[in-house]
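Fig. S4 source data, part A: sequence.
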Amino acid sequence: MAGAGRAPPPGRPMGHPPLGSGAGLLPPCGAGAPGGRAAPPSRVPSDAGAGVMGAMPPSERRDSVATTDAPSAFPSGSRPGFQAPAPLLLALDTSGEVGSVAVARGGQVLARGMVLDRREQAARLVPVIHRVLEEAGLARQEVDGLVVGRGPGSFTGVRIAAATARGIAMALECPVWAWSSLAGAAASHGAEIPDALRLESDIPSVELPKDAERWPRYVLFDARADRVYAGCYRFPAEGMEELRSPEALTIDELLAQDLPGHTLFCGSGALAHAELLDGEGFTVLPYPAGLPTAEGLLRVHHLHPGASPLDPGSRWEPQYLRASSAEREFRDRSRELAGSPEGAVTE
């Protein structure tokens, strides 16, 4: 579904204007560009690397982050009538090209921030966390729990989030909940993003009926070449359904599945394979639909009020779904040295 689309006008949350209010917005989508690769850094405005949301003069900019303390409630799909005990939760995700942090109490997001340059996630994530807490007028000791995106996505990125969450949890002696970054991306519609990420999209805006907010959302993260990380979710009035659990597969393998009707595709992998998906008759949502955000993770957590945290002190691992390129190269080299036939599995 290629074409000359436009990103939403300033001040709009992630979603699709034809659906009306924030409560009816469709999920946000991950960055990327058709052609099998994510959107290159050059597509981000030249001042985005050091920008804070809005037109702040360069002399006043402090970090490669974007923050806002404007409160917002989670979009529709939260459990009607559900009264959370309102713990203060800190959420973070660095599985994609943008690092994301948010703090919320119950269903209210108090402040949020982003690291706009993937290369600075390791150095900037903790400062952004401090900034977000400061914007919300909170001390770190007030944090009651952590919500973290465990991947899949960038191997380095998911390790950054995991290590940071472990360190904070140990220091504050608070529980940690880890959710799929794909689920967080599916739940991110309505999340606010900085102006610097409002890029021109190769995918045009799509007018959809009002009930489209209940349609399945198949989130695809680009895993290079013809491979994607994929998960499919639906948000009925009573909560959230996982239609297909996170997996790593080729785009052809995905299309061979018996896909639900009215499936909406989004994310960097959907944008990378937009022409193929469009040719199969599917709707691909424009950027930023499918972008994994901390705000989306908070919504996922809010829709699972009975979820148990990870065991205290556990060395839980991110959800990689497949071996890293270095691991694959080592395995292939080991097979060559051992004289194993191609395709054989060696321990």
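Fig. S4 source data, part B ends here. Residues 1-12, 15-64, 343-347 have pLDDT under 50 and may be disordered.
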